[in-house]
Protein 1
Amino acid sequence: MICSAGKFSNAKPSAIRFSPVSVAKPVKTQALRKDGVKFAGLTNSGLSSKAASSLSPSSFLNLNSLISITSTSKRLNMYVAAAAAASSKTASCQISKSRDVSFSQKPVSDALGLTFHHEDLEFYRKPDVAQLLDSEEDTLRSGDPLSHGHVDSHASSVVSTSHVSPPLSSSKKSARPSHVETSFRVWAPHAASVSLLLKERNISIPLLRHANDTWACRLSAGEISAGDAYAVEIRTADGRTVVRRDPYAHSADYDSHWCMADDPDSFPWSDATLGRGPRPFDEYIIYELHVGSFTPEGTLAAAMAKLDHVSKLGFTAVQLMPLTEHSDSWGYNPRQLLALHGKYGSPADMRCFVDRAHALGLSVIVDVVLHHGAVDANALWEYDGWSDGGGNGGIYHEGAPDTQWGRAYAFWKSEVRQMTLDACAIWLDAFRCDGLRFDSANDLPGDLVQHLTWTLHQRFPGRILTAEITPEDPRGIKELGFDSLWVHSGYFDIIQQHRALGRGHHGGGDWAEGWNLPRLRTAMGMHFGFEWPTQCVKYLLGSHDQIGCRKGGAWYKDYEMIGGQHRYPADQYGGGRHDPAAVACVRLWYGANVAAAGLPLVFMGTEVAMSGWWNSDEADRRMQWALADDEVGNNMAAFFADVHRLRTRYPALRRGWPQTLHEDRPNGVLAFERQGVEVANASKEVQTAKEEDGEVRREEKTIGEDGCRIVTVVNAGRGCWTDFKYSVWVGWGVFNEVFCSQAPQYGGFENSVSNYGAVLAAQDGWLRINLPPQCTLVFAQCG
């Protein structure tokens, strides 16, 4: 399939499945008048938001003028006709032929938002009023508040929907089968009336109120299509009219309330996605990128064109910084939770991006921000017009505390908790991504996190759920249910060691203790409490948090322990990309990162040895693609491709248990091994090596699932040993060097002497090697 951004052909639609919904008690309402006509009709009042100035009330024909019901001289909206059934009056219906709106008699979907129903439909005539009255009478008797009187602001309601409703869409319409019906549902407990505004048709469609404080309608085929603009008009109890977005929309116009309808099931996924199974967690090598600054265009379509670059370097996954619509430049202040950031592209663009990534063998992980809403332009603030007058934020923020970034959500409400779940599931369902990264998960209620991870694992088995918990705490795995946690400490520990020896641009002297090998031991191995290598995501060269800077390169108090600077590693370790020693340290530590226990992660730009810092708001601090083509960039490309190939070739580097073998504090040298269960048990036994006929032999042992035991030697210092004069304790075995970060093809030092081609046998437990300065060596003991 050839897929270009915003353009795609139709695929055979598939049915959308919905799970049962639990309904709580209805809100309190005033009793109906004797004639059964207690209601609030729709009016042609203006919009309250300047952002919707293009939406003139005179441009909409209110459905009250189209559909009328006569009862004791009262004109009733058809959606509240059930109220008229309480009286003995007869009813009649006249539908305007100038503005014809067709309503399906099928039930409305339980899912919130706009939902396209892909199913074979017969032609549905307009509903007969008598049938409508009969069908609604039972609902009225059961307490469904069809009247729009006083609403108890503290009434509790539940919307428990396990299916993500697919609302918004692409900027360009895609052809959709004309037989597809559409339903819409919105939660607005304090509204007196709610209408769905359809921009293309210039009409306002009133919604029917349900017992769970939601308002809904179902439209027949052709009333709305993918790409059409729509919005929600709410009439408050005190007579105000406000226009809002669909909280479940998948895309929206950034500067207004208009949302665009999205039909996820119409997208023609390729076999690369449809036939894709879950990637084993140990295979993840993650490339983190920010869509808005990854390319000059800052779009998903442009980023998709650069995925070849990521794939060729040997990464197996891209992790996208937050994609939901946001008011900041980095993405961590969401305006709403399910809408794709419009500046990045359409939902179709996102699906094309994911499909192309899958075709290249790349998984896609999305960063989700759930713990607070944006301070500026929060689309959910006072959503249905209600507030207690104290600035509590309305139904989505009521009773929630302020965080350092913005007001938290009202997680004590089931509707908000459900939206939080849907905000996660949308990426795994409607966009078929492969995993999520939860930003600052320790700022979410623990019971909510448990519910999210358990439900997502049940619905999407095999998708990876990672999280930022600071400081890293293994209870995030054992109690909260995440698959892996971001581990910050290794990054800081390593830079502190360079400060200790006066390295980098920091100066030095603050940590005069010299090399703190216990810290390095933890960085290479497993942190306390973690039980499996895949439970840690390690980024020894830094993520967006460490590399990104919003202060123009200024000093940060919370980074004082490493010099106060947010920088790319080429600057942290020296004078930038043209400083050979600094770039050697970049290779040294990433080589160690790949060999260490954990899932490696790199932030964009690191692979070309960018200098300075990253900031999407500064043109010269965005991804600099020209650097990929110069000598340093080409050397780094060769380095990344080769070091990643090690994890493919040697499963012990992905799954093997880590164990420190050698520590040389004066020289800053550390060695550790990765090995499978079989070799781990074998190494506990006494190993004997005998020299017979000049050949070193050892007892036959099973060495891991792939037949290899891997030993990594990290020389963080500047000492250099040739003629096999450096001895590393390995215990036993015969080894070959399979990687050297100072190799000439990577731009290594000219005087570096490696062990390539030599067969090295341990003597009395010691392996005698050549050891270049600022270098990581990897040895394989196979057979």
Protein 2
Amino acid sequence: GGGGGGGSRGGSVGGSRDGTPKSSTSSAVKEFEMEKVFRIKDLDTGNEFLVDEAAADSMMGGKTLSDRGDGRGGGDASAAVVRDLQTGRSLTIAEFEASMGLSPLMREMHLREGMQETSQGDGGGAGGKPKPPKTAVDGAEKTKKKKKFGRNPKRWLKKRMGLVHGHGDDPASPSKQKGGPGYVENADDPAMAAIRAAAAASGQPAPADSTAPHPGFGREPPGSAIKVNVNRKIYKEYTELRLVQRIEAHQDAIWTMRFSHDGEYLATAGQDKVVRVWELDCDDVAEGASAGAGAGDGAGLGLGEREKGKISGEGIFKSKPLREYTGHTGDVLDLCWSHTNWLLSSSMDKTVRLWYMTMDECLRIFSHQDFVTAIDFHPINDKYFLSGSLDGKLRFWNIPDHRVADWVDIGEMVTAATFTSDGSCAVAGSYKGKCHFYSMDGVRFDYLTQLDVRNRSSTKPGGKKVTGLQFMPGDDTKLLVTSNDSRIRVYDGANGYSLACKYKGHRNNNSQIRASFSNAADFIVCGSEDENVYVWSTVNSFVPSINPMYTGYRRDKHSSYEQFAAQADISTVALFAPPEVSAARGGAAAAACDAARAKITGKPTRAAAALFKGRKGSIQSPSMRDELDDLASATTGSGGSGGGGDGASEDDGEGGEGKKSKQLDARAEARAEGERAFASGTAIGKVIATSGYSGEIRIFENVGSPCWL
């Protein structure tokens, strides 16, 4: 997140401590009086900004930051000035907030949190005197003491300096190109150099936009190869990732995007308040194959219910939307599909709207008391749906009766909600980092338990905002939780919702970014505030080459991922397409995937054969499947002398051979799991859809076979 620095007086000439020049005439005082400015630093990127008082008042909702008697208090957005210290470029309020990664929902939550803290402080002191706020806003004076360093200040400083040097050492960075928008001549004090340059250039045109991406990035044509970086993995699965399609979907940022269950449609929505539905670009069926069926009769059917051709073109979706739904008066925050292709949309206008593919108008409007941040159809009966709102209430709606069947107040702002696959349990995530579980007794909520989503070593009472919830496909005991501490966690309900694994690598401090499983639960994908998309294998198969005993390595902490640059700004959404989309691919893409599956080679070990345990059906390479069959039978016949799990001997003497052959140690098991994933080739043909602040949808497809590194 961005951190706010204390304000300071402008540089007055020969002035006193309060910025008033030493002059006997009032005209001289007015001539040299300087406005109050604030210096704000983004602790994640190191970028610094100068914000004048008008801009600060505008960002605080029009409230003045200090008591003024000259009648000039209040925020005037037109007179607001925000200046980037690295480039000297003037920014608008919208550009500044976008660069800090603050969505309208996050700004609203921060504002409410500040108002709540202020109201708690008023009247809470001794003698009826109000308590001072936690941090003074005016000037550099603060009532809150400076926070001490953490346990390891050296590591903290090394990490921050690494981020700064990594940005400055990039030869393509604007700050390294003389005459470019990011060039700073005085390297000793870049902040003061930028201030002097901005003052000298007052009245001149502003420099070029320094927030633009590197030359060439973001303008790749469809079919371009995308570089994929690997972190802490011994093999690479997305070896030939291609950009297959770009769609200018919205004019502003896209906050949410959902595939229909059958993969036939993709719904998108965001800041422009419009819901658009995109259809697969399948070839027309043969003449007479669907005779007598009108064009509108099959619009609500999926791929499995009506005959469709293959996607023979390079793109996957049609360039024009099938439907454009208007009616929302605020940002659309969430979307949800039913199994029968009904569509729900929730918005900051405090409503949920119901749509259907064969109709252009809204069918039902469900009003709430506050912003609706999360919705989910009941997985069994699509006549009901779940909604979560910032008023702290979780509601269970009856669509035909157009009323609330039941509701519960969790006491915190609801930011995420979902059902289990059978609808027997509902979960709500809150702004304070908690998950509340309720069993669904018919149409009634019955409290079960709650879960704190935070680091176990943290001393703070609460956690960060929960931005996404999803149960693992095929296993309702595993819950995927995304939160604003740049962590993704999987909790195991079979063990009292204990932490099963924690995934890290992406950045999610201020955005409503949510992670999601692939259909087979073999991968987890998530967007990030650093423009990239991150993909983790669900099972951590990496073990350091040295003894994990000395590295503190744990398999439940997962930082082995593959990443690629997906957007020119914040990647707000990243989703795996359903398997029906990959199955519908034809032409050159299908041929490339078939060739990649045929290239899968490698000699699996007996440990890998033991780990498969009947899962050989997921292997897409026939030769690899035959090798594993032969190896498994050889392992069983030899009594497990090579260390396989299933073929272990019954000798359990204290010598250790029988005990070692019965159970794989952590290193061998991790290596075997990597070989199993390698042999499966599940990443071949994977389609990933992404979106960001630019309003553009970019779709990527992997057509390469895995390789060892």
Protein 3
Amino acid sequence: MAPERCNLFLIYGSQTGQSKSIAEDIKTKAESFNYDVEMMSMDESVEKMPWKEYRFLIIITSSTGDGDPPENAGIFWRKIRSKNLGNDYLCHLEYALLGLGDTNYTTFLGYPKSVEKQLQKLGAKQFYKSGWADDAVGLEIVVDPWIENLWPALENQVLNPQTLPDTIPAPDTPAEQSSVTTTPELAVVSEVEKPLTVSYQKQEEELEKCAVELANLKISVSPLSECDLKVPVLPVSYLELKFNSELMFFPEDVLRKPMPSSRTPVFQAKIKSLKQLTSEKAAKTTLEATLEFSPAEIEYQPGDSIGVCCANCPEEVDALLHRLNMTEQADIPFKLRVKEEFAAMKSGTKPKYEVPSHLPNLATLRFVLTRCCEIRSVPRKAFIRILAEFSSDDAEKRRLLELCSLQGSDDYTRLVRQPELNVLDFLNTFPSCHPPVERLLEQLPRLLARPYSLSSSPLKDPTSASFIFNVVEFPIQDGRTYERKGVATGELSRMLDKIKTGPTDSVGPNANGRGFSLSVFLRTNSGFSLPKSSETPLILIGPGTGVAPFLGFLAHREELVKRDPSLICGPIWLFYGCRNRDHDYLFKDDLERWHSMGILTRLLVTFSREDKPSQPKYVQELIQLYAASLVKLIDKGACVYVCGDATNMAKDVMQAFIAAFQSGRQLDEEQAKKAVVQLQIEKRYLQDIWT
């Protein structure tokens, strides 16, 4: 496609691996168009600045926390904000930027948009309109058309360097209408045999709904079933795996490796206790885990969180190994390396192909699939393209090609992404698909640690820390072919089951966890911590397990007052919500004790499933009820802390504070929004939220 060989510099900022994965796809496609591409993380790119050898810069980056840089982009961010850089520092560059965010979080795309502003301040010019992808509705809705239209925009800029287009083609603009011919990054697949009609016999009652959903996943309808398809280019097969039963493999060496977002090394913490907090009638099962460790291993403060290095469910791993016909080889050590024909290839100064950083060169398949790979991850379209390649049934192959095609984006979002299907769901649904295990290892991302807010204070016991969590459950439906629990919460739930069925002396009121341990680390804290002065008023909002860090705050305050009874303390208001006071009012006795002691000034609790019409059901309604008092507290310097669900609660709480400012300060809505933003800038409106 490119009329001349041209250098591209591709950098990414990634927290979970999503941006890096997209950058890798772009790199593959760019090379197929005869571009020379060098790709690296944003932090790695700092050593090469100001990138004089490049004309075109492509940036893929996400945002974390309250608009903070991802883990591998902090150095880059500090560099481009350096005051000694002139406004012509990057004037030789023309850039395109793709930002990944989530509108469930208030600072949507904070970091990517800040990067763009800073690049422009340093003289870089935009040759292609920036794309802003929203994970709340589906990244692919923006990502796919942005990447497809990048190439004609880039070619146009190479041919006409004076023209900087202000807009990009609309996402639904057909490639045939652009000035270029059909591009090789999307292979055109002609119609094959019409999909076979698959009849499903009646299964057990609980699987009946699943069968209907599988039909939707497996069989398409017109016009998608009849049209030509544009599908991703087939990714190169670059890994080779060689088994050798004489090799020795030591898992401990792998488990000790640093994890993303860690501020301490990974270490083994014994489970001191593990118990269920909710009644059997509660809608959700909530557990509390207490860990035991040496103070030398971790020094934490209230508001900190830990990362739990979890393991995939053994039964799930066994099922995947069986489906891949690798059960007999599951525990034989192997060596993993790049195939010889690709090993010497370079991309700039770096190897073009490498063993993914989360995979050990020496391991067993069972270990890799249990501890290294996110086997629950939703397959990307490039992965589905690989699955299609190894499907022997024409109808199944066609359907897989549809799901990864540009034309099948709606089906991909509705049938794959939204129900969060994984590779095992695909293999169960498409029985003729038999991919080599190496192809899965090339595509499966890293198994990330799960974050949990600590609910304890080190002043009470510096050798232990607690966290609470709901056991997440996913039933067989919407294309999911087997029941599963959350990866980490499921592992802890299985531990509790073993404790309950263990020897009598291991069971008691604390559900002792003797004999079990977790690999954990202390996570980087983005500012969700107590203010330096105990006199600062605190407004805490945490429904459900969102109360966890505030339990630590209150326990810490109690210990401080015990040590210094004359300590002057500001008021603390807690807004807490649960469903039913008899089933899931977590830590009721502790909260009421702190309230009676004066540690907690106001304890305001809602019960959303109790039939009392006059009583507020949600924390945001309580905030509206006490709006005037809260504004007065904020005017006296109070800090607001919000912890819990980002999808609804966090947005509703913020809207309640905006309304409180409108009424309390006589502001219009725009002015009230700016008042909340100002609190965020001052680090007085802090959020620890999740989707």
